[in-house]
Fold each of these.
Amino acid sequence: MIIEASSFPSTTIVVTDVSIKNNIAISILHIHTHDNPIAKTVHHVVHVTSTEAELFAIRCGINQASNHNDISKIIIVTDSIHAARKIFNPSSHPFQIHSVVILTELRQFFL
């Protein structure tokens, strides 16, 4: 899927990975468009859950990808489907701040 998607210049691929060790979350984010790296970011955060860190990584990826005018498709690759489901779950109160920002960015992208 990624090889096929990377052949289209209007598709951005966002790959996220989060790990927590000794109460420190490390979030790594890779963003590629048309087989060219756009950004690689690493965040270190203390006292957060893996779900919060993963939602933050997804949020940053969508934000950076949607800032490019020529992008029409964003593909998020994550190993944390439970975190991605939290974005669309309005009853998940602890994660609403991330959900609101992500959905706002997606709304602007689709407009």
Note: Residues 56 and 102 are 9 Å apart (CA to CA).
Amino acid sequence: MENLRKLQECKEKITTFRRAFSKFGVTKNDKPLKEMNENEEFSALVNWTINQLPEYEEMDLRYKVDGKLY
């Protein structure tokens, strides 16, 4: 739920995506996404977005919490 709250703050322009998720990191860079659990997968995507997504490009991130897709 914490991640969902952070995403909502980003959507409402209360904070930036980089600032909200700045502490996320990937523990194993060589682990394929399909072998990661949900938390590792989310962390990897956030980390990539913060460090690799070209400026002025965007990504839609869908996040499932308790069976609901946000």
Note: The two ends are 11 Å apart (CA to CA).
Amino acid sequence: MNKPLTVAREDFRRAVTEAINDSCLPAFVVFDVLQAVLSDVGRAAQQQYAADLKAYQESEVEKNE
């Protein structure tokens, strides 16, 4: 069985929190880094959505032909 998404999410959240705590960086530095990472992840999510939507639409066209 693959790891459930809820478990993977919690594992990831804990790993990020641990990395932040272990970094010993001040909060303003962590904030700047997290903002940059969030921006990158947001772009990746938009690209994934666009790719998934295109694939879905193409499969619907093929199904209806």
Note: The helical segments are 5-23, 27-64.
